Amino acid sequence: MDFEPLIDKKKERLAELEGIMSAEDFYSDPKQAAEISREYNYIKKLLEDWDLFSDSRRQLKDNHELVKGDDEEMAALAQEEIPDLESSCEKLELQIQYALLPQDKTEDRDAIVEIRAGTGGDEASLFAGDLYRMYQRFSELNGWKLEPLESSPSEVGG
User: Fold this and answer.
1) Within a 10 A sphere around the Cβ of 128, how many other Cβ atoms?
2) What is the pLDDT of residues 59-107, one digit of tens each?
C-alpha cells in the first residue's frame, strides 16, 4: 500500500500543529491545549514509525542487492539480516496502517474494570486473581496506567 500521500498530509498537519503550539496564548484554553498536544504526539509517533519503516525498507532493498553481488561474505551477512528486516517492515507497516485509521473519540478514555470471584469458592477466587494479573501485565505492555480502586485478596492467593 502506498502511504506517501497520507504521510505527506500528516507532515503538513504536524507543521500546522507546531505553529498553533508556538502561539503565546496556546495554554489559555487548557482543554484545547491538551487535545492539540495529544494529536501532535500521535502524529509525531506515526512519522517516527514511518521513518523507521522507510529505513528498514531501504536496508532490505540494499541487502537484496548485496545478496546478488560478487562478494560471498557480504552476501551471506546480508542474507542473514533479510528475515529480521522483513519482519520489522511488516510490523511497522501494520502499525502505520493502524495509526492512519480515523481515531475514535472515546479511544483515549479511562475505563473501570471490575473482577469478582463470584460463585465457585477458592477456585473462582484463584481465577479472578489470575485474571487480574493478566490485565495488569496487559496494561504494562501497552504503557497504560493501572490503578486498583479496591482489592480483597483471598487466603488462597486469589
Assistant:
1) 19
2) 999 999 988 888 888 889 989 999 999 999 999 999 999 988 887 777 7
Neighbours of 34 (CB within 10 A): 11
Domain boundaries, the chain: 4-100, 110-158
Confidence of residue 19 (pLDDT cuts 50, 70, 90): very high
User: Are the beta carbons of 97 and 85 closer than 8 angstroms?
Assistant: no
**Rg for the chain, CA atoms, rounded:** 24
pTM: 0.67
* CA dihedral sign, ordered 37, 41, 42, 46: positive
> Per-residue pLDDT for 155 more than 80?
no
Taking the C-alpha atoms of residue 77 and residue 73, their distance in angstroms, rounded to an integer, is 6
Please tell us whether the domain made up of 4-100 is placed in CATH 1.10.1060.
Answer: no
CA distance 139 to 115: 15
Helix, strand, coil tally for the chain in percent (to 5): 70, 0, 30
Is residue 34 a contact partner of residue 70, using CB atoms and an 8 Å limit?
no
